[in-house]
Amino acid sequence: QVRLVESGGGLVQAGGSLRLSCAASGRTFDNYAMGWFRQPPGKEREFVAAISSGGGRTVYADSALGRFTISRDNAKNTVLLQMNSLRPEDTAVYYCAQANSRLNGGSRYRQDYAYWGQGTQVTVSS
């Protein structure tokens, strides 16, 4: 049984930083790409960043490029999202997700992910 558990969310002022972590279990972690998505209040869930199984390829949403960094530690079955220069519009529930296939090299599409965490709230005050 695959389990993804996010942590690291919280309340931060605009311009601040947070680091989200996602601990995975249940499948061979380094076989699968991982992604971060977020769901702002009243909006659809949207892509933030993704990383390939070995960590050599990363993909970012335009809104995250230059401010957020996705990384993974395959020895610890963990994927991280370092978020800097946070803005009020980054306020959302952040979810990590694990790819549905070993062929997925890091996708921005929700349907390419089979497993999701419960989410962690990030609130950025102005």
> What fraction of the residues are assigned to beta strands by DSSP?
over 45%
Count every beta strand, where a strand is a DSSP E run of 2 or more residues.
11
Oligomer: single chain
Number of helices: 0
Q: From the alpha-carbon coordinates, what is the Rg to the nearest angstrom?
A: 13 Å
Order of helices and strands: EEEEEEEEEEE
Major sheet description: 7 strands, mixed
- Overall pLDDT, averaged? 96
| Through-space gap between termini | 40 Å
User: Structural class, from secondary structure content?
Assistant: mainly beta
Helical proportion, percent range: under 10%
Unreliable stretches (pLDDT < 50, length at least 5) are none
Shape: globular
What would you note in describing this structure?
The protein has 126 residues and is mainly β. The chain is 0% helix and 49% strand. The protein is built from no helices and 11 strands. The strands form 2 sheets. Strands 2, 4, 5, 6, 9, 10 and 11 form a 7-stranded mixed β-sheet that branches. A 4-stranded antiparallel β-sheet has the order 1-3-8-7, with no helix packed on it. A hairpin with a 4-residue loop joins strand 7 and strand 8 (78-83). The protein is globular. The mean pLDDT is 96.
Which key features would you list for this structure?
mainly beta; 7-stranded mixed beta sheet; 4-stranded antiparallel beta sheet; 11 strands; globular
